[in-house]
Each structure stands twice: as C-alpha cells, then as structure tokens.
Amino acid sequence: AQSVAQPEDQVNVAEGNPLTVKCTYSVSGNPYLFWYVQYPNRGLQFLLKYITGDNLVKGSYGFEAEFNKSQTSFHLKKPSALVSDSALYFCAVRDWNRDDKIIFGKGTRLHILP
Amino acid sequence: DTGVSQDPRHKITKRGQNVTFRCDPISEHNRLYWYRQTLGQGPEFLTYFQNEAQLEKSRLLSDRFSAERPKGSFSTLEIQRTEQGDSAMYLCASSKSLDRAYGYTFGSGTRLTVV
C-alpha cells in the first residue's frame, strides 16, 4: 500500500529566504506525486505534480519540487519565501500501476516570518 | 460550472442527529471522491464513485456513514446518529477516470461540528 511521510509538523522561514518542505513516499510501483496547499477553512489547491521525465518540476506561485527516486523523496522548494506562502502544505502519492486513489501526508504548516 | 461545489459550508449538529452533505463535481468528471480531514491531519480517503457505482469504501466508513451518487452527477454523504468524533472537514474531489495523472479538483469542504 502507498504512504506518504512529512517529517516536519511546522517549518519557519524568514521572508526572502529559500524554503524546503520535506516529503518521502512509499509505493509498490511507480509514483505520481503531488503537492497541494490549503488556506484556512478552504479546500486543497493543486500546486504541482511529478509524472515522469525531468526530476525538477515547476508549479504555481514560484514553487518547485525535486523528485529523487533513490531516496524516494519529493521535497517542495521555493527560492525566496513570501509571507503569503504561509499555509498548510500536503504531499500526496498515487501508484500509476494501479487504478487507485491519492493518499495524502499529514501536512506541514509553513510559517513565513516577516 | 468551473469547480467542485459543496453544500453546506458549515454544519453544527447535536450528537445523535443525522446530517447529509452534498457535492457537485465538475460536470465532465466521472469520478467523485470523499475525504475526511481532522485537525492536524491530512485528508483521509473515505470512498469514491465512478459514475453511479461506488467502487471502494475505506474502513473509516462505518455503518453510520452512507454515500450515494444516484445519477452519476452529484453525490451525498449521510452520517446517521452523529458522534463527537465525527467532527471534521469533509472534502469532495472529482477527476476523470482515464487521466490517472490528474491530481483531482477539490471543493471547499463542509465543516461538521457535533456538539
């Protein structure tokens, strides 16, 4: 069965500094990987996904993520953080060998300090 | 229709009452998913439909929970005899079954509070 681990409950970063939100995954086959963001009392908004090809994926709002197959990781990154990036971030995985649902991590709260 | 709609946005109910939530997916999406999100946790899968057929149910979906999608369009999620542990955000999402790389479109959720 697939699973996702987000080892940090919260990440604090000063505005203007680079940020990284960590994610590792486990699937029996090959993964589709996703990052979503959630603002208070809202649903999840899609940020970016890895399907195949280039290991560095670019998404919305200047975010990018790097797929590392040997480390089974898909860390979310941004070169320069904004206060408006403060939100809850979820990593998610789907096994593309199986017609299955997306499984989410428990989330990481990103707090950008002005 | 440009997104997934959920109704109501908020529901407060007394323990023991029944509640029903509605989800309207994106019209061309044939798959519809229900997830539950409690405080400090990620969304947990409950069940999903392809057209009107319910294809999978999680062990989280106790006998008090039932979901339907009678005409393959909107879906309802009913909770009978609500308990305080049912308090959560209930999220609906939709997708096309032929596009496994698609990351779902989520609604804004229904926040349930059982008092």
The general outline of chain B is: globular
Oligomer: heterodimer
Share of helix among residues of chain B? under 10%
Amount of beta strand of chain B:
over 45%
How many helical elements of chain B? 0
Rg over alpha carbons of chain A: 14 Å
Structural class of chain A: mainly beta
Radius of gyration of chain B: 13 Å
Largest sheet of chain A: 6 strands, mixed
Strand fraction of chain A equals over 45%
The helix content of chain A is under 10%
List keywords for this structure.
heterodimer; A: 114 residues; mainly beta; six-stranded mixed beta sheet; four-stranded antiparallel beta sheet; 12 strands; B: 115 residues; seven-stranded mixed beta sheet; 0% helix; 49% strand; globular
Write a structural description:
The complex is a heterodimer of chains A (114) and B (115). Chain A is built from no helices and twelve strands. Chain A is mainly β. Chain A is globular, with a radius of gyration of 14 Å. In chain B, strands 2, 4, 5, 6, 9, 10 and 11 form a seven-stranded mixed β-sheet that branches. A four-stranded antiparallel β-sheet of chain B has the order 1-3-8-7, with no helix packed on it. Classes of the chains: A mainly beta (114), B mainly beta (115). At the A-B interface, strand 5, strand 6, strand 10 and strand 11 of A face strand 5 and strand 10 of B.
